Inverse folding.
């Protein structure tokens, strides 16, 4: 029998709570829901007003994994949806605005991916992101080195960057921006990626060509395009273990870059819940429009 629970006055049917989704650790679907409910206060502001792409893995990372952009069948009428422009025609997507919607979406077993704009102003960026993706034998240590360079370069233009783990093998840099279209932010991000490659040619690559990535960090600037999305802060990832795309302190990034201790950049659900209790949302400054930098 599927248990029914009430969240903020909404009745939800939560299924298969004992199902193991992460066999390497025995992490269950019930624990997935508990994690999202625990971090909801810091996660929801990063989802609010953003149309979501779901990377679903209902049978765990070893099962079928697929992207869902349109509103899923059976979505409750009280879940907010919005029509979103696309080159192939408008689509209706889910917008998670509250705890009940978050728990409903988490019950689908999904990663949360967001664009760098909000539904009130599609195609007008309020975020800038870099996805630092290492090619073996380079790893997250090298990503930390590149992240520090990009942070300093962005600061020269009055843009304050923050770091988070990708929940996989790399790092994300995130900054609040204002006054620019997604296209303009994409062009700016590409210029900085090219500058980074010129400054560190043995370490950085700005082109997407996979055959060139060995031993280098690909600075993916393209996720600033209006049609692209990035794994949201605090989302669980469909990996072997329940890793999280978790905000970091710059001190941590520097310590890993200098010590080479890559393991410190892998943060699981339990660790992230503890970090939130201790520090709150380390990525909160990007929610403050007053701290947004102007894209040159």
């Amino acid at each position: 029998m599927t248990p029914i629970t009430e969240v903020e006055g909404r009745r939800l049917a939560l299924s298969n709570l004992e199902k193991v989704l992460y066999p390497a650790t025995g992490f269950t679907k019930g624990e997935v829901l508990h994690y999202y409910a625990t971090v909801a206060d810091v996660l929801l502001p990063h989802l609010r007003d953003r149309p979501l792409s779901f990377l679903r893995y209902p049978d765990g990372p070893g099962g079928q994994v697929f992207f869902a952009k349109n509103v899923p069948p059976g979505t409750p009428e009280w879940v907010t949806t919005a029509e979103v422009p696309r080159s192939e025609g408008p689509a209706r997507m889910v917008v998670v605005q509250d705890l009940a919607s978050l728990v409903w979406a988490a019950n689908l077993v999904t990663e949360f991916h967001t664009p760098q704009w909000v539904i009130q102003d599609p195609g007008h960026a309020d975020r800038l992101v870099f996805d630092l993706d290492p090619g073996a034998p380079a790893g997250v240590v090298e990503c930390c080195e590149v992240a520090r360079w990009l942070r300093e370069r962005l600061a020269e233009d009055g843009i304050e960057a923050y770091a988070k783990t990708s929940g996989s093998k790399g790092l994300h840099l995130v900054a609040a921006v204002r006054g620019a279209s997604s296209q303009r932010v994409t062009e700016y991000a590409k210029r900085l990626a090219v500058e980074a490659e010129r400054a560190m040619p043995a370490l950085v690559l700005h082109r997407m060509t996979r055959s060139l990535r060995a031993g280098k960090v690909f600075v993916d600037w393209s996720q600033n395009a209006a049609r692209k999305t990035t794994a949201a802060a605090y989302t669980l990832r469909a990996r072997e273990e329940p890793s999280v795309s978790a905000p970091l302190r710059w001190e941590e990034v520097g310590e890993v870059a200098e010590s080479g201790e890559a393991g410190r950049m892998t943060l699981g659900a339990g660790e992230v819940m503890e970090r939130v209790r201790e520090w709150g949302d380390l990525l909160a400054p990007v929610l403050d429009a007053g701290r947004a930098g102007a894209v040159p």
Summary: The chain has a mean pLDDT of 95. The first helix runs from residue 29 to 38. The first strand starts at residue 4 and ends at 7.
